[in-house]
Design brief:
Belongs to the eukaryotic-type primase large subunit family. This is DNA primase large subunit. It comes from Cannabis sativa (Hemp). There is one protein chain. By secondary structure, this protein is mainly α. It is built from 14 helices and no strands. Helix 6 runs antiparallel to helix 7 and helix 12 runs antiparallel to helix 13. The protein binds iron/sulfur cluster. Iron/sulfur cluster binds next to helix 2, helix 8, helix 9, helix 13 and helix 14.
């Protein structure tokens, strides 16, 4: 068994050893809440899926070049993985009725029968999670993903009406007077505990205090993929010269090091 296939029982150990922070966070939240909203199900579900040669290879040059691989969960295993978690929250019957379709859809077995590819870092970083979502890139969206849940809706409205075009953060110090500053893209400034919790999550992954400052420096300067690359290097004690461009590349590179 290589990188191209894993079973449900492997996922927990792999999440701890080889998932990047965005997927580790989704996995932990799924285990905790037994539920993920649509954006989270897509981001984690596509990351976990099996590499399907053929259609899959056409879409992504990095996959084509064999540089990255999906984690490798086959459709039946994916259904069983998601059902085990969701059943605890919504019951098995509701899972079959409302959620199984979406998983089959991700695997190209429903609807337009597109065999969807896992999301790249670029796509995840530019996504726009809202309060209650757990998808996105924690290095960019940590205030939303790890901060307190008490964001005033007026603050989000302020952001939407004042923020310049997409991808731009609310400017530093531009207080709206409504409390913690949180934008519709899940970032912003405010004392909501997000930074502390990001540090705690990195520490749980195995980032030591010296490397932590370098990672946080990249976060503050909005170099999210570099922050992820430094995390990879700190956790694995090995360099990652190409940098992290894709969560599945993080996974593949990690497995290569751990299995060497
Ligand atoms: Fe995930 Fe990419 Fe962000 Fe790393 S940089 S946490 S792999 S989206």
């Amino acid at each position: 068994k290589g990188f191209s296939e894993i079973s449900v029982k492997d996922i927990e150990a792999l999440a701890k050893s080889s998932f990047p922070l965005c997927m580790r966070h989704l996995f932990d939240k799924l285990k905790e809440d037994h539920h993920l909203k649509h954006g989270g199900r897509m981001q984690l579900g596509l990351f976990l899926k099996v590499v399907s040669h053929g259609i899959f290879w056409h879409h992504c040059p990095m996959l084509q070049a064999g540089l990255i691989l999906g984690v490798g969960l086959k459709l039946d295993d994916a259904l069983s993985f998601w059902k085990t978690e969701f059943s605890q929250k919504v019951g098995a019957e509701r899972f079959d009725k409302e959620y199984a379709y979406g998983i089959r859809h991700n695997y190209g077995r429903e609807g337009k029968r597109t065999d969807y590819t896992p999301y790249s870092c670029q796509k995840i970083i530019s996504s726009t999670p809202s309060v209650g979502d757990h998808h996105g890139c924690p290095y960019r969206h940590f205030r939303l993903l790890f901060g307190s849940k008490s964001y005033p809706s007026g603050c989000i409205k302020w952001y939407q009406s004042h923020a310049p075009s997409s991808g731009t953060n609310v400017s530093e110090g531009a207080a709206c007077g409504l409390g913690p500053h949180i934008g519709s893209k899940g970032e912003g400034r405010g004392g909501d505990g997000g930074e502390e919790n990001l540090r705690a999550a990195l520490s749980k992954m195995g980032v030591n205090s010296r490397a932590m400052e370098d990672v946080m420096d990249k976060v503050q300067n909005r170099h999210y993929q570099l922050a992820c690359t430094l995390t990879f290097e700190a956790v694995h004690g090995a360099s990652c010269d190409s940098g992290i461009n894709h969560p599945n590349q993080y996974f593949s590179d990690s497995q290569k090091i751990l299995q060497a």
